Amino acid sequence: MVNLKAGTRPPWVGLGAAVWVQIASGNAYNFPLYSHSLKSVLGFNQHQLTMLGVANDVGENVGLIPGIACNKFPPWVILLIGALACFFGYGVLWLALSSKVQSLPYWLLCLALCVATNSSAWLSTAVLVTNMRNFPLSRGTVAGVLKGYGGISAAVFTEIYSTLLRNSSSKLLMFLALGIPVLCFIVMYFVRACTPASGEDSSEHAHFLFTQGALIALGLYVLTTTILNHIFHFSAPVSNTFLVIMVVLLMAPFAIPIKMTFHRMRVSKPEMHHQPVETPDSVIQEDNADKTERC
């Protein structure tokens, strides 16, 4: 890790990537979406289904090991473990529900569900701890924003389930088994620890207000579209449009590093006109300043 100047981009890129991971960490909330299919396809009674729900809750709430691991390993390792838990846990459930494998023992399904939902603890811990360390003066704000995105993850998954997956429990389990690991591999590079900026960033408060505003807008949007779709049963093109707009709102936090990139480009050009002569010392200082931009 290197020292960063105030207003550098890497921590904000990491926060934008953390939003997507935090949404993915809400996978445990999806049990009601496919539990009815487990009961009907696999022939479980209500008691067996309730015990599966207990396994779902146990896996989601066992976060001691991820917390300890987060102090010993880099964030990408924690994300990798969470991705593998999703792949194997939901993969076993998909094999059973889609009848690809016949007569899997009940205890194995309970274990698979527990492992699958435990991924939420690994994913959430990785992004929360990393971003709270990257913004030490705004730890409470960072935690509140990321927990807020985790809170609306159930609504996001419901929108995906009803629109993209056409209310198919089997497709949902495949989406969880493959989609979440792919997402983790994509953002793994961006969710990383940075040495906090040595100077105070005057725009940090405004950036967090924007992120919170984007969160509120996303929550209201998903709530409104879910209710309207349930009442009016929109056609596929309209529902797909709603889904695309939701994805755009999820991308909103990335507007902060993008804005910082273009703003820096604009302000750097006029300053060059006032420095017609560059000394070797000034070139070295500028080169060192550029290096501090990288995390």
UniProtKB/TrEMBL annotation:
It is a multi-pass membrane protein. The chain crosses the membrane at residues 12-31, 76-97, 104-129, 172-191, 212-232, 238-256. It comes from the Eukaryota. Keywords: Membrane, Transmembrane, Transmembrane helix. It is found in: Membrane. Its main location: membrane. The keyword Transmembrane applies. GO terms for cellular component: membrane. Pfam families: Nodulin-like. Gene3D superfamilies: MFS general substrate transporter like domains (1.20.1250.20). The keyword Isomerase does not apply. Residues 11-258 form the Nodulin-like domain. Residues 271-295 are annotated as: Disordered. This is Nodulin-like domain-containing protein. The lineage of its organism: Eukaryota, Viridiplantae, Streptophyta, Embryophyta, Tracheophyta.
